[in-house]
Amino acid sequence: MNPYLLLTPGPVSTSKLVKQAMLSDWCASDDNYHQEIVEVIRSKLVSLATMGEGYTSVLMQGSDTASLEACFGTLINKTDKLLIINNGADGKRMVQIAQSLKIAHTVIESVETTFLDLAAISKRLQDDPQITHIAMVHCETATGMLNPAQQVGNLAHEFGKVYFLDAMNTFGGIPFDLADWYVDVMISTASHCIQGVPGVGFVVCKQTLLEQSKGQARALSLDLYEQWHTMHTLQGKWRFSSPTHVVRAFYQALIELEREGGIAARYTRYLVNQQGLVLGMKALGFEPLLPEELHSPIVTAFHCSQAPEYNFHDFYEALKEQGFVIYPSTVTTADVVQIANIGEVYLKDIADFLDAVERSCFWL
């Protein structure tokens, strides 16, 4: 049923049991569904995200971007000002959401291949006391850069700001604790490092922030407060139609994460995958875009071949015919190819992929 392995940053290849979980139909109003599936997911997410107190979680229908937009549109009021830290396509999306929602904001931008300047962020916070919230991306998908989320959290705490962390590509695959990093609001999805399927995003955040946001939402279906309040008071029920099959797959994916040994064990697998990928691609003449100290264990961007015969489409199709799908990059400063190593992917899969790459280098 699945002719190829996804080496993309999301969606990812899933296990057979996650796929099988979607083969049964579920009634969203049934107690077995919303109490034994939805509420268990919500509890597990908080436990995975932090050992701190005062956090809660809420699931949202739709893409990860929908959850991010729900957060901005609900938790930031009309008198607040948002600082967006942008060094890639995912950060740019934050800016677009703020513009669309007419949220007062300011942006610190960095070149995609350059590590964020923490001193510049600190100075902006000093110079602009109107800033109330900070938002940044943990791992920029386009380049694979792992941003200094903990250090920015320290700055948010120092200056007394609410801190949003977009952890779409990292939560479930990289160990961290929201309370330790002073993260007030984390946004992620079932379909990346959790290894579920697309269709459900989620937010783990300070419950007090949600309680204070009643009536602030700029949209009906993306009202994060009302979604949380309904789930919180009615034991896992959804305001509108629940994506039951996707949620059941999410539940199964969380069970498999536990069986693997938790986030720390999954991080180790991803790291081994990524290191093997980099070594093998370099041996075939593909140099990473970033220096290795900036790499994430999630996705890596490689410079494309400079051979006149090379073109991405032919390379992509040659790999797809052999059972592997990669991703065209959205990096604007270089011609690169994006290869992720998350999902139901193991070191043997990376070795098989590298063999396929070697066979696909028709320009050599």
TrEMBL record:
Sequence ranges assigned to domain Aminotransferase class V in this UniProt record: 36-287
Keyword Disulfide bond set for record: no
Chain sites annotated for binding substrate: Q338
Necessary cofactors: pyridoxal 5'-phosphate
One of the protein's GO biological processes: organic phosphonate catabolic process
GO MF term list: 2-aminoethylphosphonate-pyruvate transaminase activity
UniProt keywords, alphabetically: Aminotransferase, Pyridoxal phosphate, Pyruvate, Transferase
Enzyme class: transferase
Keyword Transferase attached: yes
Catalytic activity: (2-aminoethyl)phosphonate + pyruvate = phosphonoacetaldehyde + L-alanine
Protein EC: 2.6.1.37
Highest taxon listed in the record's lineage: Bacteria
Subunit structure: Homodimer.
Family to which this protein belongs: Belongs to the class-V pyridoxal-phosphate-dependent aminotransferase family. PhnW subfamily.
NCBIfam families xrefs: PhnW-AepZ (TIGR03301), PRK13479.1 (NF010006), transamin_PhnW (TIGR02326)
Function in brief: Involved in phosphonate degradation.
Protein name in the entry: 2-aminoethylphosphonate--pyruvate transaminase
